[in-house]
Amino acid sequence: MVAGQPEGGAAAGRQAGGAWDGSWVAEQVGIELSDAPGLRDLVGMAIRRGNPARAQLLVSRVLGKHVPQHPSVVLGTGRRLGAEVRAVLGAEPAVVLSYAETATALGQCVADELGAVHLHSTRRAVPGYTSVAGFEEEHSHATSHLLLPRDPELLAADGALVLVDDELSTGRTVLNTIAALHRRWPRRRYVLAALVDLRTARDRARLAEFAAGLGASVTAVALARGEIRLPVDVVARAAAVVRGDVAARAGAVVRGDVVARAAVVVRAGAVVRGEGATGAPAGERAGLVRLELDWPLGVPEGARHGCTPDEVRRLTAALPALADTLAGRLRGDERRILVLGSEELMYAPLRLAEALAGVLPQAEVRFSSTTRSPVHAVDEEGYPIRTVVDFPAPEGEGERYAYNVAPGRRPASRFDAVVLVVDATADTPALHAPDGLPARLLATTDRVVLAVLPTVGALPRPLGGPDFSSYSASEVRWLLTDLSGAALEAPTAEREAATQSGRAHYAQSLPVEYQPGPHYQELFRQALAASARRLAVAVGVVAETLLRERGSGLVLASLARAGTPVGLLVRRWLARTHGLTVPHYAVSILRGRGVDRVALRYLAHHHEPRQVAFVDGWTGKGAITRELTAALAGTPFDPALAVLADPGRCVRTYGTREDFLIPSACLNSTVSGLVSRTVLRADLIGPGDFHGAKHYRELAPHDLSARFVDTVCEWYPTVRQEALAAADLLARQGNRREPDWAGWAAVERISEQYGLADVNLVKPGVGETTRVLLRRVPWRVLVRADAGTELEHLRLLAKERDVPVEEVAGLPYSCVGLIRPLANGGR
Fold this sequence. Notes:
Radius of gyration: 32 Å
Strand content: 15-25%
Largest sheet: 7 strands, mixed
Shape: elongated
């Protein structure tokens, strides 16, 4: 290891006074580890519990699993191993596969050094994923490994396959792995990378013979090599030592500072057990802080489903802000801080620990991780596992363990705070129970910060018809939470007062669904008949433009709900004109709240973010365009919005910039798949949930959703050439397509002219004016003097609501709706 590293690096394998962290096992059980160069600096030796296949455990001092370590040491060791692999591979490309749970961070460090894609095996079954291969780790406490890449062909990539583990003991695990993978994805070269290599000459010969049988090259690299010699009866010896050690210590009670924070702390060996002082749920205990980190979109929390170099770069860019968030939840006077990962989740907590050390230079930050492996704890010099905190598995059965977190008989090793990092799948009631890990940790430290990362396994599933919406599930999947059973509707005047006064956001309730009379419904039918051809051309222009810019891997994300019929129309154009079946989702966007972050995580996991095109019906002044741009800043998503009509002149992908009637604006849910506007309310929507909406099943007799889409689609064959020509023209316009935001400037002028302090009270364009009359408290409607018959539905609505209509010469929109400013003022 590099000279000058912090205490606790490789040299810490030899304790002060020369004791090695394997000497106790050597004396008690008779296991001998050779003193080969560098070997004892990297590992100590402990005794496993309950494992009939193997008695000993090599405990790495530099891995950050069982022994808390400086994050710089852990990262530096992993990168050093990666450099050894690069020296073997040269310029040859590679895919890295590492083993759960111990080597997940190590594998990512190697992949970082190689600039390679990384996948680690897992013992967690994830809904929606089928293992592409499996293999056995015979000596492990939990033997079965799954491979769950999000791209099933990840392991088919060209180049070498690098298999990373913390140790090579016999080589059986890599034999099992290569055999399983070579049957499906044969390749000519494999590289085995480990911190230490303890294989015997016989083991090496067996692997060489196996490789020759495959016709492949297998090369092993390690930071240290040596031999381990075991007594014939090693398992029995170790079991006897464990039994005697536990019996000798059972019943001893630790008192002092620990007792002040725990009702009962019993030590059997060096095991910390017991409930927190109050017995209250973990979230209510003094000293516990829970936060959901705003993890960068499109970046997986680990490599369980694969991780690319680009995703690592985006994580690196986000780390300073994440570390600032964590530091803000600490008191600020902590001298020793532990960042504790959880089982397979090691690399993300390791990088967080590295970043936290950077923003808290006054503190000593260490990193380690919990594990499912039971290891005997002995609080003696010359033994690496001094203490163990055990706790129920948060996402399954059995116990889990955190080693060397409790100080034991070494007060100087006590941590002032522990940052526990888990993913959302592990954020379960068992974790927060009185005997869960946060409660156990509070028996050893003053403060626990529970940081929860989003995870694929915890993502909600999309909704689809007919259970949710009248659209077929094959045509659109709604990234929404079904709130159909909730009473969300409020009188229009009440909602308007709450919104303008700032007492409530408009998305906390729903307007009562407007049910049009026969006359208005007839106007809708007439408007649809008159505009269907024009709509079909606009759809074709948008679809062709998106196809040219995004390619056949295009994914449609319509802005629920007004954008959803448009997304269906674009999807059908691509299917009927090009034979393409593109995924289509409906996502929520709310002014002042942005795009649904959980929905974005879903899209980022299942699709390439740059292929996702956000689609809406029209623009008004451009508020939603700005909201989308701000929400997607710093993410891998392209914030460009595609609309059929862009009278606000604020997007560059549009069917037309004329302000014309899109008939779907004339109605509410009955033209949008019977789905309400979207809702975001903390008492109904949890941090891991999609935004919500209602399905108005009772309005099915009045549903015109299918009729609207089908009527427009009937024109596709007729207008195909016209749409293609218009798309060609749009492509040639270059800079003339760029937004000039003329609509926003016009709204500011109108707002000033009519004495409206809040531009949000000005709703320009046919679509927005219709919404004002359907859902808000309208004040007046402005129409352009030369407006035609397509505004008849507006005139009827205005008459029904006793709203004056003013003709205005030179209006840049066909019409503008003004919301009545209330006496108590706007926001």
